[in-house]
Amino acid sequence: MELEIRGLTKRFGSFVANDDISLTIEPGEIHCLLGENGAGKSTLMNMLYGLLDPTSGEILLDGEPVHFTTPGDAINAGIGMVHQHFMLVPVFTVAENVMLGREQTRGLGMLDRGKAAELVRELSARYGLDVDPEAMVEDLPVGVQQRVEIIKALANEAQVLILDEPTAVLTPQEIDELMEIMRSLKEQGTSIVFITHKLREVKAIGDRITVIRRGKVVGTTAPGASEPELAEMMVGRAVKLQVEKPEPTVGEPVLDVRNMTVIDARGHTVVDDISFQARAGEVLGIAGVQGNGQTELIKSLMGLVKPDAGQILIDGKDVSKQGPRETLEQGIGYIPEDRSHDGYVGGFTVRENLVLDLYKHDEFSNGLALRLDAIADNARERIEEFDIRTEDMDSLVSSLSGGNQQKVVLAREFSRPLKLLIASQPTRGVDVGSIEFIHKRIIGERDRGTAVVIVSTELDEIYALSDRIAVMYAGRIVGTVTPDTPREEIGLMMAGASTEQEGSHRG
Amino acid sequence: MADDKGKAVSWLPTAKVTVASILLALVVGALLIVVSDRKVVEAAGYFFDYPWDFFVFAGEAIWDSYRALAVGAAGSWNAVTQTLERAAPLICAGLGVSLAFRAGMFNIGAQGQLIVGAICAGYIGFTYDLPIVVHLLVAATAGIAGAAVWGGIAGLLKAQTGAHEVITTIMLNYVAVSLLLYLLTKDAFQREGSNNPRSEAAADTALFPEIFGFHAGVLVAFAVAFAVWWLLERSTLGFEMRAVGANADAARTAGMSVPKVYTLTMLVAGALAGLAAVQQILGHQDSLTANVAGAIGFDAITVALLGRATPLGTVLAGLLFGALASGGIQMQAGVGTPVSLTQVLQALIVLFVAAPALVRAVLRMRDTGGGATVMAKGWGS
Ligand SMILES: Nc1ncnc2c1ncn2[C@@H]1O[C@H](COP(=O)(O)OP(=O)(O)OP(=O)(O)O)[C@@H](O)[C@H]1O
Ligand SMILES: [Mg+2]
């Protein structure tokens, strides 16, 4: 099926999010969309999927103009979309989720689960998805849940599949698997619109690349273009893809974790007797496949989870019993891994979110009342400094693009003097231009003498920032190495290989 | 979604839907007036002989009823004072429900809080002999404090144990009703020499002074609405309440104490319901009876919903309901249209407000998103 977009425009009030966009998705091609945060990629996709009404312009399928008012219309026309936040019922099985909304019954209205399971098995085999129809969705890792979403779309006979930043939440291993699946979908005639901020992925899998900047198409190229070329097209200036990093001046330990253990609600030991230090003026990277205890580790550093054993010393003082407010007040900056979960309040304005954990400071309140002027001034400065693309400071953060939401969180945490910065996936969903800026800020923070702990599932980011790399596996730190350690070796450690032999790289 | 910006809680109706709902309710109400009017029904019997009669009578019936309703609600200064006095407790209790909404809680317990407030305020009012002003202040404080405690219990339970406030406030309503009925059989409360479950009336010294024909509690209600607005929009505590209501996880990560916010919010919500009780019992020389709270605590939920959980909206919705209540009585007395019409109108407004898709379909309004997933959050969290 050929999908053509002709002169599509979308306005939000006076703001033009998509400006006269035209492009064609050929049958069986993987069409990549590249663009800065807030360029209008998701907006365009939401119009294709019937979630947003175009202000003007048309959508044509095989030359026929179509008009979608709901996603149901788009699905019926053969368009499927996998959102960043999955729309699955966690307590249902895969088959039940796929069946949802198109329940097949036999006789007397009995649900025909067998048929749904059969369909899942068939699709799974045909495209190499490897999904068990009987598995409960909540037990599945994120990558597999995403495949369930893909199966849902395929079960509706989608011929065009929209994937909006599918790799932002995946581990490198899962990304490779997704790429395989995308290839096999393409071979069997499905076209894919693929949005990502990772240029490497675009080059690896794209057939054609369309770059959007500030709502307009700036060009379509082939994947032969180099990464710096692509980056420049997106941002409109040359981008340094590698951060410049002088030698660190390492000082005293700021954070000292001693034999910490965390047991989760189900009784599993998720953090297992961990000890490490983060010193002033250095970046400690914590690498590891998602779900090996990193989440719980940093949550307990912040006082959000109480460790079951061990000590957390900040400047020599045990903080393991205190709550998040006290920890924050000690000068700890925190960037949570899932911004929409606990990084910002979507229903609050940009201005409010920029003081979400600072509103009690003398600068922003007198104890009882908020100082609105100071809060507005702060917002103006932060928006400018971090280039947050928003209509104004009173826009709701939920209306911002994903990357700009992340910038709101970052801007807030960088807006006060820090002793320790704990950042989990700091650049998730952020465009290359902003990554350059954020990395610079992190290194700048380090050079001011702050201890920095970066948790990332992306090795690129770990390598770019870290002075030492600790690798987590199954709740333990299996080794701490220097950044000149080869990728393969760290890859093996992340998979749980023994660490005895890497003595030469010990950091 | 520019239209969404003014919304306090994502699933609450937009201003447009609210106004449209009120208009639609009046249209449906007009149909009910027509079918329940004797003359119109008779005219329908000979519709094909004199069709004109039917339309004339129907028009007259609708005009007369709504005119009587409007005149009864605001046609004279006396009517206005009636409306204001009826609106004031609805506004106060409605503010309590709105405040809880904004902190992410569904406070069904205004009724129970009102009852406890009435018990406390009433008891001080009719038992003690205190100087003027002091008596009023002491009685009002007791009523507000009692209700605050009653609300605070639900908040504390949620904060400490995670018990859902919908369940606890409903249960506390039952407890409050039973407590009231029990106390009204006791000597300390029951009127001397009477077997009726009714107390003495509050002493003159404890009553709100009258100004411009209404009791001063009305002014207090408006002042409190402003105070609640200030609390929500200008204070640090309100910032915390709204943050917790919109995303409790983010609030916690930002260092706010979610349990503290839940408890404080319900405490204040209870206090506001207590103020409503104080107006009921100290507005005029009213005694404590089983029916002292009427349905104010439940209408308050409607008022808050209609007011979109904002203080200004709650005031306007409270005034509307107050007007319907006082106008309805005049309407029945004047033109014989049953007062239950106003209750039907109230119910219809709520129905339309709760089903925005229906209103949009009828009026061909454009969907601006949100609104359709009523209560999806209230129960989930
Ligand atoms: N509902 C809305 N109301 C107002 N503005 C909106 C709305 N949705 C999106 N926008 C604005 O439109 C612009 C484009 O947003 P969009 O989400 O399409 O960006 P994007 O290209 O997907 O960015 P990212 O890479 O960060 O995900 C942004 O500036 C955003 O603030
Ligand atoms: Mg996007």
How do the helices and strands line up, and which of them pair or pack?
The complex is a heterodimer of chains A (507) and B (381).
Chain A: E1 3-12, E2 15-25, E3 30-35, H1 41-48, E4 56-61, E5 64-66, H2 71-76, E6 79-82, H3 94-99, E7 105-106, E8 110-111, H4 113-127, H5 142-155, E9 160-164, H6 172-187, E10 191-195, H7 199-205, E11 208-213, E12 216-221, H8 227-235, E13 253-263, E14 269-279, E15 283-287, H9 294-301, E16 309-314, E17 317-318, H10 324-329, E18 332-335, H11 339-342, H12 350-353, H13 372-385, H14 402-413, E19 420-424, H15 432-447, E20 451-456, H16 459-465, E21 468-473, E22 476-481, H17 487-494
Parallel strand pairs in A: 3-10, 3-11, 6-9, 9-10, 15-20, 15-21, 18-19, 19-20
Antiparallel strand pairs in A: 1-2, 1-4, 4-5, 7-8, 11-12, 13-14, 13-16, 16-17, 21-22
Chain B: H1 15-36, H2 38-45, H3 51-74, H4 77-102, H5 110-127, H6 134-161, H7 165-183, E1 198-201, E2 210-211, E3 214-215, H8 217-234, H9 236-246, H10 248-253, H11 258-282, E4 287-289, H12 296-306, H13 311-335, H14 340-354, H15 356-363, H16 376-380
Antiparallel strand pairs in B: 1-4, 2-3
The structure holds adenosine-5'-triphosphate and magnesium ion.
Magnesium ion (MG) binds at residues 41-42, 164, 401-402 of chain A.
